[in-house]
Amino acid sequence: MKDTLITAQRKRTELITAGVCFLLAVLLNIGSIAYYKTPFYEVFTQIGYTLVIAAAFYVFWTACRLLVWCCRKALKK
Q: 14-55: per-residue pLDDT in tens?
């Protein structure tokens, strides 16, 4: 089996991407709390939903990046 190496730059990129996805999910949660005029402590009590939304954002963004990568690779040939 071939050993793979994940560079520090790739790790940093993925960490930043995950952080941005989490930040967007938190902002979405805060926006919905303000829109529906619910108590502010729901920012903390709904952290599970926020993590699920952040994971969904991350999966969507990764799928988009994979699609772009595949298109670029196909166009090079």
A: 999 999 999 999 999 999 999 999 999 999 999 999 999 999
Count of CB atoms within 10 A of residue 39's CB?
A: 8
Q: Residue 5 and residue 49: Cα distance in Å, rounded?
A: 33
Q: What is the pTM of this model?
A: 0.86
Strand (E) or helix (H) holding 49: helix 47-76
CA distances (Å), 32 to each of 21, 22, 43, 54, in order?
17, 15, 10, 15
Residue 63: which of 5, 6, 17, 3 has the closest Cα?
A: 17
Number of residues assigned to the chain = 77
Please give the structure tokens belonging to residue 2. 């071939």
